[in-house]
Amino acid sequence: MTERIRTMSPPVYVGLPLDPPEPVEGCGICAGAAMARESAQARGAMTAVSDANVVIRRHPHKDRRQA
Question: Residue 24 and residue 30: Cα distance in Å, rounded?
């Protein structure tokens, strides 16, 4: 039989949000994601803003170091 836990879990610590990534100059994918981000931000669609930031941040480029 499973014993019930009668104590609270420790607090969750959340860090500060990351700064928006800069699109790499000359990259069409980054440029498109940056345009989508601007449009999403203008209409208040923050989930779409976050999605565009992820695309820019994770899109591979040979000339930039991955963080």
Answer: 6
The conformation of residue 15, written as its DSSP 8-state character, comes to: -
Q: What distance in Å separates the CA atoms of residue 58 and residue 55, rounded to the nearest whole number? A: 5
Question: CA angle 60-51-57, nearest 5°?
Answer: 25
Question: How far is it, in rounded angstroms, from Cα 33 to Cα 48?
Answer: 10
Q: What is the model's pTM?
A: 0.69
SS3 content of the chain, % helix, strand, coil (to 5): 40, 0, 60
Rounded CA separation 33/50 (Å): 10
Q: Give pLDDT tens digits for 28-37.
A: 999 999 999 9
Q: In this structure, how many other beta carbons lie within 10 angstroms of the beta carbon of residue 12?
A: 5
